[in-house]
């Protein structure tokens, strides 16, 4: 009735039968009411995808029946309106009055604080850049939501503590969590009861640590992971965690001395993976630590942790450390790069010096090593022997390194092993004096 340019007639009751309507979208004029539709300038589905999903029922009703702004609802040719459906200007524009359409579209969105996506913005700017539609000012409609800080959104509560989040749509309409302050919960939401956030409780079968993972929209990269304390687990109602194939913060790796794969959880617990466990992780990519690993001499019991396989740098490996590393299988070898057998002149005792040990060896051990000729130190009278030159000692580097200078632990360990025999822990990389440098690094 409002948009007819002549008085209307009725078929029965309040049903309009005839009048005259001029369609802005195609320039057509109609006299039968059945030939026109009342179009939402911004379709309901378009508004929903952007922000209306978070509105109250009252706000959605007000938007759908916005009779207070003349451009919110427009009478247009029915089949043209049907071709528009719920599309935005990125995929649909009318054949006539495109500038007016772009202006009205922006005006309605501004009135209701409805955002635009990048493609939509590009399409609108093609008309509203000052050349297509001119630069004459256009009156702004009244704001329906005047203070964005008073806007309400769905609320979700973390079940293991008291944190409440507003689910605020991003520019693409995806609900994004924003932590709610107590003051806004009190003043804007009047202590509205939030719904529990979708949260699962998981752990690795080999570790006692329980994690809560909250599935925020957007996929795996947006999930929120929390290592639970006992009070948090208690607050959540002592949920029984399920065994997970992967937990965020896990580090997958392989040593250069075996084909075994390992994972170090976010809690620092290491585990040797089975094929089924790696499959359960989704075959996560791993770091190939190809120049370090673990070795064992075939003729001795000692293990060596190798920080540099190519140079033979390493140190003895104790059982506790081997256990912490989840018992990696050492590579069994007869000799290790850079090791040596030696004895003092005039003394029959043969010593072995290598990354895993420095001690006298038995006859059986020496034979197991291939009966190598030992280096003789000192000068024996009448034998023409000479004292071999001492090993080259590196210059003292001083306290010039921090753990932050290295990307991986093995890099720090190689540096440590190179200088430790001569100057000790000169750079203070081994905080607990266990022979392992920068253990916080991956």
Radius of gyration over alpha carbons? 38 Å
> How many beta strands in the DSSP annotation?
25
Structural class call reads: alpha+beta
Main beta sheet: 4 strands, mixed
Q: Termini separation (Å)?
A: 72 Å
Give the overall pLDDT as a whole number. Answer: 90
How would you describe the shape?
Answer: elongated
- How many helices? The count is 11
> Oligomerization state of this entry?
single chain
- Give the uncertain stretches in residue-range form: 383-390
Helix content: 10-25%
Question: Into which percentage range does the β-strand content fall?
Answer: 15-25%
Strand order in the largest sheet: 8-7-6-9
Overview of this protein structure:
With 442 residues, the protein is α+β, with helices and mostly antiparallel strands. Among the domains are: 9-128, no CATH class; 152-242, no CATH class; 396-442, no CATH class. Helix content is 21%, strand content 24%. It is built from 11 helices and 25 strands. The protein has helices at 44-50, 57-64, 78-84, 98-111, 118-128, 182-187, 230-235, 275-280, 319-324, 363-368, 409-423, and strands at residues 9-12, 15-22, 29-32, 36-40, 73-77, 155-157, 164-169, 175-179, 195-196, 199-203, 211-214, 224-227, 242-243, 251-255, 261-264, 270-272, 287-289, 293-297, 303-308, 313-317, 331-333, 340-344, 351-353, 358-360, 375-377. The strands form 7 sheets. A 4-stranded mixed β-sheet has the order 8-7-6-9, with no helix packed on it. It has a 4-stranded mixed β-sheet with strand order 12-11-10-13, with no helix packed on it. Strands 16-15-14-17 form a 4-stranded mixed β-sheet, with no helix packed on it. The protein is elongated. Mean pLDDT is 90; it is low at 383-390.
């Amino acid at each position: 009735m409002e948009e007819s340019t002549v008085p209307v007639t009725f078929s029965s009751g309040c049903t309009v039968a005839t009048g005259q309507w001029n369609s802005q979208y195609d320039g057509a004029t109609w006299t039968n009411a059945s030939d026109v539709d009342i179009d939402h300038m911004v379709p309901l589905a378009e508004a929903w995808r952007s922000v209306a999903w978070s509105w109250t029922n009252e706000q959605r009703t007000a938007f759908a029946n916005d009779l207070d702004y003349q451009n919110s609802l427009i009478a247009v040719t029915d089949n043209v309106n049907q071709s528009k459906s719920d599309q935005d200007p990125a995929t649909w524009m009318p054949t006539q009055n495109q500038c007016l359409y772009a202006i009205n579209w922006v005006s309605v969105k501004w009135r209701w604080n409805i955002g635009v996506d990048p493609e939509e913005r590009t399409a609108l700017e093609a008309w509203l850049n000052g050349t297509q539609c001119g630069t004459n000012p256009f009156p702004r409609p009244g704001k329906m939501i005047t203070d964005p800080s008073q806007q309400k959104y769905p609320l979700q509560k973390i079940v293991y503590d008291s944190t409440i989040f507003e689910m605020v749509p991003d520019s693409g309409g995806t609900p994004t969590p924003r932590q709610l302050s107590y003051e806004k919960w009190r003043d804007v939401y009047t202590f509205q009861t939030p719904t529990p956030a979708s949260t699962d409780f998981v752990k690795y079968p080999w570790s006692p640590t329980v994690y809560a993972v909250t599935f925020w929209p957007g996929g795996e990269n947006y999930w929120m992971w929390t290592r639970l304390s006992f009070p948090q687990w208690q607050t959540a109602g002592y949920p029984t965690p399920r065994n997970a194939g992967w937990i965020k913060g896990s580090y997958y790796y392989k040593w250069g001395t075996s084909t075994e794969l390992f994972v170090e959880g976010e809690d620092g617990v290491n585990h040797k993976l089975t094929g089924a466990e790696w499959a359960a992780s989704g075959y996560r990519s791993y770091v190939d630590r190809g120049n370090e690993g673990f070795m064992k001499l075939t003729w001795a019991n000692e293990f060596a942790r190798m920080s540099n396989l190519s140079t033979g740098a390493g140190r003895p490996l104790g059982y506790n450390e081997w256990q912490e590393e989840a018992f990696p299988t050492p590579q069994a070898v007869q000799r290790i790069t850079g090791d040596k057998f030696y004895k003092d002149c005039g003394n029959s005792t043969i010593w072995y010096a290598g990354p895993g040990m420095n001690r006298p060896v038995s006859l059986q051990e020496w034979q197991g090593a291939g009966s190598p000729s030992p280096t003789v130190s000192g000068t024996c009278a009448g034998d023409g022997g000479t004292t071999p030159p001492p090993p080259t000692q590196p210059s003292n580097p001083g306290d010039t390194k921090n753990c932050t200078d290295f990307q991986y632990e093995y890099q720090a360990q190689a540096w440590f092993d190179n200088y430790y025999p001569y100057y000790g822990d000169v750079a203070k990389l081994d905080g607990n004096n266990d022979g392992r440098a920068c253990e916080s690094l991956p």
